[in-house]
Structures are given as C-alpha cells and as structure tokens.
C-alpha cells in the first residue's frame, strides 16, 4: 500500500431546505389557515479518527466530500427531511489544518475522536410560523441557509514513543525489525526504507512503539534524499535513537556522519533537535574490540557527547536487550 501523509480536500455541508407557503384548503373548510411546513436542516460533515487506518491514500483520488441538503417544507405543516450527515475517517495522528489561513483546527491523537468540520445550513421557516392575531394569512417564509464549505489540509504525523534517526544503511530498519517484528525492508543499497514504518516492542510485559523513517543525507534540508520529508513523523516521539554505522561500507567517517545528521536535524527544527536522544553505535560485529574502543574515544572527544550511548549489533542483536530495557525505563519516567 502506498504511504501518503498529506493531502488537501474540500468539505461541503448540506444546504437547509426552504420553508413552504401554503393554506389549508379542504372540503367544508374553505378558508383554512396557513399550513406551510419548515424545511429540513442540511447535513453536517464530520471527521473521525480510526485506529485501523495508517495512511491517507483514500484521499488520493476523491477530494470532494459533500453532505446531503435538507428538503423543502410541505403543506399540512409537514417539515422537510433533514439532510444526511457524512463522516470522513482518517488515521489516528491526523492534523486538520485550514488550507487558506493555515490555522490548526484540531489534532486527532486518539481513536474515535470526532469533530464537526462543516455545519449544515439551518432550515427555512414555513408561513405557519408567521401566523398571528393580526396576520391571519401570512405569505411570508424564509429560505434555508447555505451549508459551510471549507478547504482543509490533512497531515498525518505518526504516533510513536521512539523514533530512529541516521544516515542510509546505518542499520535502522534491521534494528526495528529485530526488536519489534515490524515488516521493514532491508537491503544493502541506500534508501531501502521509502516511507515510515511502525513497530511494537514488548519487554517486561510492557510495550512501546518505535518508528523507522528513511535515512538522512547531507543536504537533506535543501531537498536531497527522502528523510527530510518524513522528519515530521518524529515530532510526537518522546525520544530519538540516533543510529550510526561504525563501519560504513562507503569508507565515510562515522564522526562526520553524526555531524551531518545533527546539522540537518537542527536546520529542520530546533524543537526536534532538542528532543532527548540516545546515540546508538551500530555494527560492532564487523569490528575488533580495540578498533571499537579507539573509535568510541574519538567520537566522545570530538563530539562532546552528553547523551547516553550504546554499542550494539542490530543484526546479531548484541546489546539490543539492554537498549530496549533502558528505553522502557526512560519512557516510564
């Protein structure tokens, strides 16, 4: 299934039905009073979050959602039928934004959270409503009001406790797959992960959700690569895992790679840059102990690391149990 996390749609509520002008005319009642009924209210448009959805692909082709209009009033004081409401279902984590003003209307972060996005028009009044002691034959009625129309932007931000961060082929997908069982794609070429993937990690009879996003390269903030397009999915995370390949196959420097990712993160969002991070030094199975110790000392010296760091092998699962346990302890705090 194609992953789509942003779209613009138009919502149109139903119009209210018009009031009716009519007078009672029956056998033996030649001069009956007014009996024109009211119109029906227009239908509303609602948006509701649903846990069973994880993409906005349903809105790829259908862009206009319109509720039913109310029908006009009838004689014999019969009111028109109310227009049917419609409900638009979106994934949990969808942010609803006014497309014109950029105002955030709501943020649906819970299952079955429902909001009224476009209100239907109020019904018109029939001439019965205007009968009085001084006006026995009113010919006045009112028209139904027009329903609301809005262009709204739907923006999906995945809800995860933990987010992964790093260069392509740093081992993010392997780690997520091995600790959570998520169906992530793994290969030796860059940008194997083309869209965010969620996994659920269970440890000590408790769970946390981890998000795997595409890798970030130097110049991502200027449009290079894929990762910058999906960094927004880390905004809801409580902690980030900065995963670094200690033995990159392209002979690049792990220290420089760390700097590249942090620099791109800072340019994208200061708030995201300041989120708590764990530094994960990955692929230790490809290196000797002496080389690992030497490289770790260099990283600590050049980067002045203050956050916790871990030496792991996501492929061999070395150190991953301790990492997951510490993540859970941090989240519980």
Automatic annotation (TrEMBL):
Domain of life the protein comes from: Bacteria
Alphabetized UniProt keyword annotations: Cytoplasm, GTP-binding, Hydrolase, Magnesium, Metal-binding, Nucleotide-binding
Alphabetized PROSITE patterns for the sequence: G_OBG, GTP1_OBG, OBG
Keyword Phosphoprotein attached: no
GO cellular component, one term: cytoplasm
Any one GO molecular function term: GTP binding
Every OBG-type G domain range: 160-332
One GO term of the biological process aspect: ribosome biogenesis
The protein's required cofactors: Mg(2+)
Statement: the UniProt record of this protein carries the keyword Repressor: no
Annotated positions binding GTP: 166-173, 191-195, 212-215, 282-285, 313-315
E.C. code: 3.6.5.-
CDD domains per the UniProt record, alphabetical: Obg
Pfam families: GTP1_OBG (PF01018), MMR_HSR1 (PF01926)
Domain spans labelled Obg: 1-159
Location (main, coarse): cytoplasm
HAMAP family from the UniProt entry: GTPase_Obg
PANTHER family referenced in this protein's UniProt entry, alphabetically: DEVELOPMENTALLY REGULATED GTP-BINDING PROTEIN-RELATED, MITOCHONDRIAL RIBOSOME-ASSOCIATED GTPASE 2
Purpose: An essential GTPase which binds GTP, GDP and possibly (p)ppGpp with moderate affinity, with high nucleotide exchange rates and a fairly low GTP hydrolysis rate. Plays a role in control of the cell cycle, stress response, ribosome biogenesis and in those bacteria that undergo differentiation, in morphogenesis control.
Name by which UniProt lists this protein: GTPase Obg
Originating organism: Buchnera aphidicola
Gene responsible for this protein: cgtA
